[in-house]
Amino acid sequence: MKLRTLEEYLKEKRERQNRLDRSNYCTKCAVSLADSGACAAQKCILDLVAIKKLNAVARNLRAAPP
Fold it and tell me: Which domain of life does this protein belong to (predicted)?
């Protein structure tokens, strides 16, 4: 396994992000964008909603008396 320096990692990440930005893909989930510019699969938005719901459930469980 090749070990990379932080600079190499950041450079590769920036290049990958630039490729996604130039192409017609969602930068969060890499799904092809529709003509409207919205993520066609809405995958990244659904992931965020699911995370928010899980966090709310966890808050409720912590707040509930034993």
Answer: Eukaryota
User: Of 46, 65, 64, which Cα lies nearest the Cα of 56?
Assistant: 64
The rounded percent of the chain whose pLDDT value lies above 70 is 52
Using alpha carbons only, give the angle 10, 45, 22 rounded to the nearest 5 degrees: 45
Task: For 25, list phi and psi in degrees, rounded to 5.
Answer: -125, 150
Residue 3: CA count within 13 A, CB half-sphere = 1
Q: How far apart are CA 13 and CA 25, in angstroms?
A: 16
Q: Please tell me what DSSP assigns to residue 38.
A: S
